[in-house]
Amino acid sequence: MADQYLMQDPTTMYADRVPGEQYLAGAGTDAELAQNVPADHGEDSYRGSGRLEGRKALVTGGDSGIGAAVAIAYAREGADVAIVYLPEEDEDAQRILALIKDAGRIAVALPGDLKDPAFAREAVETAVRELGGLDIVVNNAGKQQHVEDVVDITDEEFDETFKTNVYGTFWVTKAAVPHLPPGSAIINTTSIQAYAPSPHLVHYAATKATVNNLAKGLAAQLAPKGIRVNAVAPGPIWTPLQPAGGQPPDALPNAGEQTYLGRWGQPAELAPAYVFLASGESSYVVGETLHVDGGMPTP
Ligand code: NAD
Ligand code: MG
Questions:
Q1: Ordered alpha helix ranges (H), 77-186
Q2: Buried b / exposed e across 167-181, counting CB within 10 Å, b at 16+?
Q3: pLDDT band at residue 1 under the 50/70/90 scheme
Q4: Which residues line ligand 1 (CB under 6 A)?
C-alpha cells in the first residue's frame, strides 16, 4: 500500500499492481477488476483533515474508480456524499456507501442512467433533499470504448458516449446550479485525451475536450455567482472503465509506460486534486484543468 503522506519514489509506487490482460463486459466493476489487480481507492490510506467539514457533495460514477476514491476522500474530509451509478454496479456502490458511513457521514445511493435527462434531474433533486442542500458537484461518470477505425464507430456508440459524458454533465450541472450557494464548486472529469487524443479513442476524446471546454465556459459564467468550476484531467488510471472496453485487453499491461513515471496511476492518486478544487483552499482557482497523469506533454 502506498501512503501518500510519506515521502516516496513515485516511479516505484504500485510496482506490485501492474495489470495483466483482462476484458470485462458492460461497465465493469471494481469487484471484477480486483480479480486481475485490485485498484487503490485510498481505503487504507486516505486521512482527512476537516477540509470539507459540513459540505454536501454529489459525485457521479462514485461507485468505482476515480469517483470512488473521491467519495471516500470527501467523506473523510467531513462531507456528506451522494453517488450516482448504473444499477448493475450496486455491489461496488454498496462498498463505497459503507465507507462513507464509516467516516460518520450521510451516504446517498442514486442508481440510474445519466443518458436519461429525467433521471439526471431527479438524481440532483434527491441528492439535494437527502443531503439537505448541495455545494459540490463532481461530473465524473463516463463511458469509454476503443474503436480502431472511424468507419466502425456505430452511430449508437457515438451517441451513447456523448449522452453519457457530455449530455450527462450538462443535465446534472443544469439541475444543480439553482441549488448551489456561493462558495460551491463544480468539478468535471476530463482527460489527457482532451488534449492528446489517441487514434483508437477519437469519439471518446472529443467528449472529453467538450467536458473540459464546458468547465472553462461555465467557470466564466458562474464565477460572479461565487461558484467555481474547474476540471481534473487524469492520465491512465487503473479503473474498471479500462478493461471494460476502454483499451484492448493486450494493451493493459503496458498502458502506463507512456507517462514520465512509466506506470499506471491509481484512483487514490486523483482524490487529493478533487479535494483541493472542492475546498475553500482553492478559492482563487477558477477555470483550471489540473493534470494528474504521471507526466505527459500538456498545454
Ligand atoms: P469507472 O468505470 O470506475 O467509473 C465510471 C463510472 O461512470 C461507472 O462506475 C458508472 O457508475 C458511471 N457511469 C457510466 N455510464 C453511466 C450512465 N449512463 N449513467 C450513470 N452512471 C454511469 O472508471 P473511471 O476511470 O474511474 O472513470 C471516471 C471518469 O474518469 C470518467 O469520466 C472517465 O472518462 C475519466 N477518465 C478516466 C481515465 C482512466 O484512465 N481511467 C483517464 C481519464 C479520464
Ligand atoms: Mg463503476
A1: 90-102, 117-131, 155-162, 168-176
A2: bbbbbbbebbbebbe
A3: low
A4: 27-28, 61, 63-67, 84-86, 89, 113-115, 140-144, 164, 189, 191, 234, 236-237, 239-242
* Helix orientation angle between 202-222 and 168-176, rounded to the nearest 10 degrees: 20
Gap between the Cα atoms of 290 and 190, Å rounded: 10
CB of 230 closer than 8 Å to CB of 285: yes
Q: Please say whether the beta carbons of 265 and 258 come within 8 A.
A: no
pLDDT one-digit tens code per residue, 148-166:
999 999 999 999 999 999 9
CA dihedral 270→272→273→276, nearest 10 degrees, is 160
Task: Provide mean pLDDT across the span 248-262.
Answer: 97
Does the reported pTM lie above 0.90? yes
* Residue among 270, 298, 280 at smallest CA distance from 140: 270
Domains and CATH numbers, the chain: 32-43+53-292 (3.40.50.720)
Query: In the numeric block, which cell numbers belong to residue 179?
Result: 441549488
Length of the chain: 299
